[in-house]
Specification:
- The protein is of the alpha+beta class.
- It contains three helices and 13 strands; from the N terminus they run H-H-E-E-E-E-E-E-H-E-E-E-E-E-E-E.
- Helix content is 17%, strand content 40%.
- The strands form two sheets. An eleven-stranded antiparallel sheet has the order 6-5-4-3-2-1-11-10-9-8-7, covered by helices on one side. The chain has a two-stranded antiparallel ribbon with strand order 12-13.
- Strand 4 and strand 5 form a beta hairpin.
- The radius of gyration is 16 Å and the shape is globular.
């Protein structure tokens, strides 16, 4: 469980700390079109429910369900037996550890994850296309060169005509400054189905009663 907590902390730090400062590779016209398509995907994705598999630096994989609702709500519900929960309200990610009765929050700031749940944010200002050699995939990377301790995050989309704007979020990879890698892969994506706000409530282990996750 200690390794899992470390992986979660690394992932959350990478997600919340990425700013608009990007690597120096020049963007092409095609890159600009792809980033505009990603921005359209964000605007058209009112909700998303998907299965996820998270693999940490030691090769340990945990599964669960990701639920996203615009504006501002996201939830990572881990598999049975894992006493951890991540809930986002658009301003911060809250990590709830029921085993040690601890709650931690990180501001999402200008991270790509923040953009995924905020259709008003300009995705193109803090994203950069990374060539993959696979025309079926679109990969964008963000990092803050002034704060290398927060590492990088790469979002991967599949080109899928039936999905919003022709893209489906496939997953992401977060790397810390030491090169440790946490990968999240999505499957069974269901777009724009009704999602109740109650899906983003969580029980605070420190006090009785539910708390709002968004």
């Amino acid at each position: 469980m200690k390794a899992l907590r470390s992986a979660l902390l690394m992932m959350c730090c990478a997600l919340q700390a990425l700013t608009v400062q990007m690597p120096t590779r020049a963007q092409t016209g095609t890159d600009a079109q792809d980033l505009a398509r990603v921005a359209d995907y964000i605007r058209q994705t009112r909700s998303l429910v998907a299965d996820f598999a998270q693999t940490d630096r030691n090769g340990q994989t945990l599964t669960g369900v990701l639920t996203l609702k615009q504006p501002g709500k996201i939830r990572f519900q881990y598999q049975k037996g894992v006493p951890l929960l991540i809930v986002g309200d658009g301003k911060a990610l809250t990590v709830i550890d029921y085993e040690v009765r601890q709650v931690q929050r990180w501001p999402i700031g200008s991270s790509p994850l923040g953009a995924l749940i905020d259709p008003s944010r300009d995705f193109t200002k803090f994203s950069k296309v990374i060539q993959t050699g696979d025309s079926a995939l679109l990969s964008v990377e963000a990092r803050d060169p002034k704060r290398p301790e927060f590492g990088t995050i790469t979002l991967v989309f599949q080109r899928q005509p039936s999905a919003p704007a022709g893209l489906s979020l496939y997953g992401w990879v977060a790397r810390d400054a030491q090169g440790n890698r946490t990968a999240v892969r999505l499957g069974g994506q269901r777009y724009n189905a009704p999602v109740a706000d109650s899906a983003f409530r969580w029980r605070d282990p420190r006090t009785p009663g539910p708390r709002g996750g968004g």
